[in-house]
Amino acid sequence: MADYIYLLENRLSAAQRAALLAVRELAKAKSLTLFLVGGAVRDLTSGSPVRDLDVVVQGNALKLNKDIEKAGGTIVGQSDLGQALFVRFPGSVRMEIGSTLSVTFPKPGKPVHKPATILEDLRRRDFTANAMALSLNDGSYGLLMDPLNGVADIENRQLRLVSNYGFIEDPIRMVRAARYMARLGWTMDEKTQSRYETGQQEGYISALTDFPRGYETEEIVHEEDPLRVLNRLEAEGWMKHLAPYWTAAKVNVAELERLRETQTQLQMQGIHPDPAAANFPLLTAKLTPKELETLKASFPRKGFVTEIEALEAESKEFATQLGSKLAVLPSTSWKMISAAPAESVLWTAFSTKSGQLQAKFKSFYTEWPQVRQKIPYTLMQEMRIVKELPIYEELLEKLFFELMDGHLQTPEEMKAFLEPYSPPAPPPPVSTRRLKAAKAPKGRAKKVKVVDDAEDEDLDLPAIARVTDSDDDDDPTPDADPDSDDDSGSDSDSDDDEDMDADEPAPVKAPAKAAKAAPPTPAKKQAPPPPVNVAAVKSKPAPPPPAKKAALKTALKTALKTAAKTPVKAPVKLATKTAPPARAVKAVKAVAKPAPKKAVPAKQSVVKKATPKKAAPPAKKSVPAKKSAPVKKVPAKAVKAPAKKTPIKAGKKR
Questions:
Q1: What pTM was computed for the model?
Q2: At CA 497, angle to CA 461 and CA 587, rounded to 5?
């Protein structure tokens, strides 16, 4: 379905699509279902050029003649028996509008038609390749109906009869088969070929009636290569039954070939005439006037006969206009040729003897089209004149005609001509992302600086001060840094590496709460160390990464919360300088960049009992600056040294 929608939109000419649209709207207004049938569907499927359009409606098509004329069509003939109208639409579009009918043959060549559905209509046709239909109705547009598998015969390039008695019932089908084989180069399948030969021998053609005889005779003139079809029909012996006085010997072959060359030149410039009217005088060049009149009288499309007779007069009128002063400029001549009826242009270009007109047509074929190569597409792009502009196509035509007339010679003149059509330059884009990116380095530098300052301050703080700060976790006042707990609980696995004994608390450096900006690095969670009163490891390693430092803080907090159960009236922040322990404690190996001072390699060692020192004078507890609520001041008292030694695991940084 989608494939045929694509074919309908791309394989048909613009004039054919416009004609189909007009008929679709007409059928929709009359509540009639409409289908594209016959040769048009066959040609769309096979890839051949679509010469004419055949449509059917489920109803009496003869009642639509007035509506079709209102829609822009011209009725050129009709068939009362088959309830069909022959219509010409603008753009040289031929269309046959019929009714969906079933047919029976009481006698050979004597059909009886009755209204029927579309499927019944397809089953009464001649060949399976023609027994297909495409829906043109809303909701099923492009739907293919192929009850007899005609697509397979099209792929095999074969003609196969729908009915085994097809040639007996309607002998004109034998003539039609020969015409299709001459045009398409197809063959008949084995059974159809056998019945075809039998029909020739038995003389089925004797039952031929006048209407199909005249219809097939006219179709020869409408062929793309009428001489080839005429030769084939004559060779098969059918011309003596159609028009015995008309043979290939009566054709002006040389002029017919020259007409085809002229038609090809016009098609290359976008002019697509219907050559049938121009073909007729050349195909019948050697017929007598009486034979000529007899032949015209047999045609069912009387409007086509009128076109043949009016062609010469219309061509002379067009030649007069093209040779007048109104067509002095090349652009004027181009417009006049493009706007005139295509059939008149074809016959004038073929038959004129005027040197002036011949020169103009020669320029129309060769010289003037080359001007399109001079159109400055690059300059138009630079001036923001692109295809999206509504005036783009119109501007191209104006520019083409100005170049054709020689009014624009230099790039400066072209630019001056295009300047009024150039749209203003768009304002520079405002990008908020670019502004954020410019501020980002400052913010990052600021955060790094805060972390570094906090680390420097931590290195100068005594361990006991950090111990007292850790007791603030029990304070009902909310911590100013809610992330400090989260940042510090992730490196406790290093506590299991070594065990150390300490007699008295030693200074421990507290992690700075200002290190909030540093992203936490998650680590493996291990069981908390045994509870101790105060554990201290004094060392001055290089500042580790913020994540490791935060992990140490979590380990210390966990231990100190347990030790806080011992009744201590008030934490005391000792003086900055305290007595060093008796023996050096194992230095923690730094993972980050080396500090200015040389770090001591990490070794396993046990801290031995140190001589207890006197505590510094008590001091008041200092409230952190980040606390939002004031802390109640408590008189500071000295902290008693623990009587019992408690081992503590020193955190080993990795």
A1: 0.65
A2: 40
